[in-house]
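Methods — Computational structure assignment.
A single polypeptide chain was analysed. Its primary sequence is given first, followed by the predicted tertiary structure written as structure tokens.
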Amino acid sequence: MEFVQNFLQADIRTATPLLLAALGLVFSERAGIVNIGTEGIMLTGALLGSVGAHGFGNPFMGAVASKLLWARPSTSLPGASPSPSTVSSSPG
């Protein structure tokens, strides 16, 4: 029984970032914005955070490095921001 409890705790803990990203996607879809690159953005941010934490030897500095190296430049890239023209289901 302890194995099942530990498994469920680990499952909930590791699924939380994906659930939060999915919740953000639900809100953006409801607003009419289609963002199909969410998982790639999360993976790249996690990779840069891990590399930064290893390089600096500090997890907090890894998070700061990820924010500086990925989050800021990605907002200026044309492909990283949602386009103003969205697909509409209504004709016209």
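Note: The helical segments are 2-30, 38-56, 59-76.
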